[in-house]
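Take a look at the protein record below and flag anything odd:
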Amino acid sequence: MITSTVTYLGNLRNECMHIGSGKAIITDAPIDNHGKGEAFSPTDLAATSLATCMMTVMGIAAEGRGIEIKEMHAEVTKIMADNPRRIAEIIVYLKVKSNADEAQQKVLETIGINCPVALSLHPDVKQNVTISFK
């Protein structure tokens, strides 16, 4: 089954349509690479996907263990490299407010840092992840 379709709109912009939901997002080339920077760039999405995947699998794990996630918020920083142009590092600072005890926090953290996106990224992409439970 097709996951999404992508249509080039011109001017280094794409419309990405999620088939299952009909929701669309726009990508734009970043300012430092000939674009307008008016939307997520493809590499912004890749970096952001790491955080959203971590949060999703942690939410699933918490739900299955009766842990209440009161709030999760991530700050994502993408660092690019040249020659070749690529993502060199993704920094994720994830704050979690929950009723998880210390052992449960460790389980959630392990699940988060081993999410499908984390395991799919090239080993040369440094993943600098900090998870803070409050």
